[in-house]
Amino acid sequence: MYMSTSIRVSDETKKKLARLKRDDESWDEFLDRLANEGSGMNAGVWKGTDKAEKAREAIERSRKSFER
User: Fold this and answer.
1) The pTM of the whole model exceeds 0.70
2) R_g of the chain, CA atoms, integer Å
3) Residues in contact with 25: Cβ distance below 8 Å, sequence separation at least 6, in sequence order
4) Amino acid 5: pLDDT
5) Alpha helices in 1-68, H assignment, sequence order
6) What sign does the CA torsion over 61, 62, 64, 68 have?
7) Contact 21, 27 (CB under 8 A)
């Protein structure tokens, strides 16, 4: 059972948060997700994207820049 709590934020902050909130989640689910982000690795989070390859490329560029 949830206890109702109000949190005051500015209109600008609410707009920023609303852009991050997924359409299929409640505000409680959104804030819980936000609070837990960065609390650990999510295995497979990059699966099906090119983010891992882009990260490898960025690391390689960084290493090469130090070789000069």
Assistant:
1) no
2) 19
3) 33
4) 87
5) 11-20, 27-36, 51-67
6) positive
7) yes
